[in-house]
Specification:
binds zinc ion; 3% strand; 2 domains; mainly alpha; 2 strands; 57% helix; 143 residues
Length: 143
């Protein structure tokens, strides 16, 4: 992994990292640009060309299509998914324990590609509850 800083043209390892050369940190829309200038999106030669353009003082102006591509890619990345809030997790756990763990499992499948962190959290809450739930049902119905 490597990414070209959109301000100084220096290299850093991750696109969402503070630039070690100039201290620039990409945020918001800037994160999309940072991703476009990373090895996730560009080959070595293109990265080199982008770095030289930035160093020459040319502004980085990605097209709408490029920004949309970055947005799609970042939407699927574990690092940019804020995941579930504490309250949402408690609600999911309460539902799993008192009613059924099904909503959590369905949500996990639903979110798998778009919100990987939320999906894992829903699974972490619901899977053990599902096991406990099935165990309880079986135990209750055993003669
Ligand atoms: Zn920099």
């Amino acid at each position: 992994m490597t990414s070209v800083c959109a301000r100084c043209g220096g290299r850093r390892v991750r696109f969402d990292q503070i630039c070690p050369a100039c201290g620039h940190r990409a945020e918001g829309e800037g994160l999309l640009v940072a991703w476009l200038l990373s090895s996730d999106n560009l080959g070595d030669a293109e990265l080199q060309a982008a770095a030289e353009r930035v160093r020459a003082g040319q502004p980085v102006r990605p097209s709408d299509a490029q920004l949309a591509r970055a947005r799609r890619a970042l939407g699927r990345s574990y690092g940019t998914d804020p995941g579930l809030s504490g309250r949402q997790r408690v609600a999911l756990l309460a539902c799993a324990l008192t009613l059924t763990p099904l909503p959590g499992l369905v949500a996990a499948g639903w979110w798998w590609t778009e919100r990987p962190r939320a999906a894992l959290q829903a699974l972490a809450v619901s899977a053990p509850a599902a096991v406990a739930w099935v165990g309880m049902v079986v135990w209750t119905w055993l003669p």
